[in-house]
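TASK: fixed-backbone design
INPUT:
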């Protein structure tokens, strides 16, 4: 058609244009004395467990059409740390992250479950994602296109130090960030395994992109839930949402926060 110009998608856009029409600061007010360190997870069970502590104080809320998400504050080793529930999936997780930054957070730790792609290597280890395959869309609005995005070496080292201090076994490796949990097809799983991915999840690549864009120190660790390592999917303890190890994961996150 005469006059038609090819549509440029975000996946092809080499330069991130500035500025955005509106920012998180236009929708979220800063909070006086908001903790510099913020921790988040996707498990409502874990958040509820720590929110019920006498040491915990509700300090704000994140508002979406899905409802309000409380933001809490807890004191750990003499340091105030904020924590809240992240929504599952890159766009929702990133929106909450952006708004928490607008409230005043300066350092961020995120943890959650993942699908295991290599049972033999992962076993019962906590996973340190050193890079993430960008099979989602959100990261491309923050960082120019690339097949993968790497984690900052300093953040990896801080997490390693915290794991050693806590005495938890761990493994470093590549994760696969996918937007579509029900479209993890067998051919794609096999391809990602050949490329060296040991886990699959839905947020890591996007959160790494935003943290780099906003210049916020960011750490993420993963724990295995279901297994995609064989020809048959194994649900395992996916439905428990990490509750059985709530203290273990939160203490590790707190240690990462104070060590950043």
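OUTPUT:
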């Amino acid at each position: 058609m005469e006059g038609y110009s090819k549509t440029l998608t975000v996946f092809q856009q080499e330069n991130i244009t500035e500025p955005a029409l509106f920012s998180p600061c236009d929708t979220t007010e800063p909070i006086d004395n908001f903790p510099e360190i913020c921790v988040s997870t996707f498990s409502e069970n874990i958040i509820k467990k720590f929110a019920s502590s006498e040491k915990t104080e509700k300090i704000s809320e994140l508002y979406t059409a899905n409802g309000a998400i409380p933001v809490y504050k807890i004191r750990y080793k003499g340091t105030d740390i904020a924590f809240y529930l992240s929504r599952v999936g890159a766009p929702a997780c990133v929106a909450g992250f952006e708004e928490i930054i607008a409230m005043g957070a300066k350092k961020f730790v995120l943890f959650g479950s993942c699908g295991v792609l290599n049972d033999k290597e992962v076993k019962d280890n906590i996973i340190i994602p050193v890079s993430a395959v960008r099979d989602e869309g959100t990261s491309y609005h923050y960082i120019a296109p690339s097949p993968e995005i790497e984690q900052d070496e300093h953040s990896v080292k801080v997490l390693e130090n915290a794991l050693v201090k806590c005495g938890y076994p761990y493994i470093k490796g590549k994760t696969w960030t996918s937007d579509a949990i029900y479209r993890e097809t067998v051919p794609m799983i096999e391809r990602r395994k050949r490329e060296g991915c040991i886990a699959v999840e839905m947020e890591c690549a996007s959160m790494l992109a935003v943290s780099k864009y906003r210049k916020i120190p960011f750490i993420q660790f993963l724990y295995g839930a279901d297994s995609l390592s064989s020809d048959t999917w194994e649900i395992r303890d996916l439905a428990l949402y990490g509750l059985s190890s709530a203290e273990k994961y939160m203490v590790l996150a707190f240690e990462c926060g104070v060590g950043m």
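COMMENT: Residues 33-259 form a domain with the Rossmann fold fold (CATH 3.40.50.1580).
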